[in-house]
Design brief:
264 residues, mainly alpha
């Protein structure tokens, strides 16, 4: 019972942060599954991506209802991301072998360090610039090639590591496509929901998913994602990004050291 409650709370926290900050919630769920629940790197990735799918599904639906997403304009990003997710889900099977799966810890730690660095950067007022403008179109109208490249790069992460693409998509929507930050977060979640669904299907078929662990987390993420999307409409979460960025730097270091057999 205590473990079920812990998993639900972890999912609730991940979902809330996902809806609020436009991330998939994997930065919360991966360390929970890997270091507290004690799953292997491959099974943690497979279980995490299913919960992340529910985070993105709940958050993107709420953002869509709030008018933050134009589905037609992000189709090229969704399609290229889906193709990349399929390709790298096949590569994941190679890395998930017992002799090589510790490399997943190293790779996830490095990706988490990028996520943490972005959060710290955007959390310091005046450093990233205040981009909380409420106006502007929800359409992503930049060149087709840029959209295909961004979607393809972002689609690699859920397929290969079972984690989110917010570290790529949110900055891309903001700085490449010029979208207001809340539109960028909403569009990121929507694109990633397709990537996460495809990756989840592959991880389940490959046998790297613990459904009994994933179920309470998914329930929590569904509740939290909707809450986070509502909070996003009412807040400018700079301070939260700064605090979480520092915490995730610690988490990324923990994953990297785990690769070298060092615990902290």
């Amino acid at each position: 019972m205590e473990e079920l409650l812990l998993l639900f709370i972890g999912g609730l926290l991940a979902g809330t942060l996902g809806g609020l900050l436009g991330i998939g919630g994997g930065v919360v769920l991966m360390p929970l599954l890997r270091f507290i629940v004690g799953l292997s790197p491959a099974r943690a990735a497979g279980t995490c991506i299913l919960a992340v799918f529910f985070t993105t599904l709940g958050g993107s639906y709420r953002h869509y209802r709030l008018g933050h997403v134009d589905l037609r304009s992000i189709v090229p990003i969704v399609v290229s991301g889906a193709v990349a997710t399929v390709v790298f889900s096949v590569v994941f099977l190679y890395l998930a072998a017992p002799a090589r799966e510790q490399w997943l810890d190293l790779a996830i730690g490095l990706v988490f360090s990028l996520i943490a660095a972005r959060m710290v950067y955007e959390g310091i007022p005046g450093l990233a610039g205040k981009r909380e403008e409420e106006g502007g179109s929800t359409k992503i109208t930049d060149g087709l090639v840029n959209q295909i490249v961004v979607g393809g790069v972002a689609g690699a992460l859920p397929g290969l590591f079972g984690i989110g693409t917010g570290v790529i998509l949110v900055p891309a929507f903001t700085y490449i496509f010029g979208a207001p930050i809340k539109i960028a977060m909403a569009s990121s979640l929507t694109c990633f929901s397709f990537n996460a669904l495809i990756s989840s299907i592959f991880k389940l078929a490959q046998g790297f998913m613990n459904l009994e662990i994933a179920l309470p987390i998914c329930i929590g993420t569904l509740v939290g994602a909707n809450l986070g999307a509502i909070l996003n409409k009412r807040s400018a979460p700079y301070a939260l990004k700064l605090i979480l960025g520092v915490i995730f730097l610690y988490v990324s270091l923990k994953f990297i050291l785990s690769f070298f057999g060092v615990t902290m």
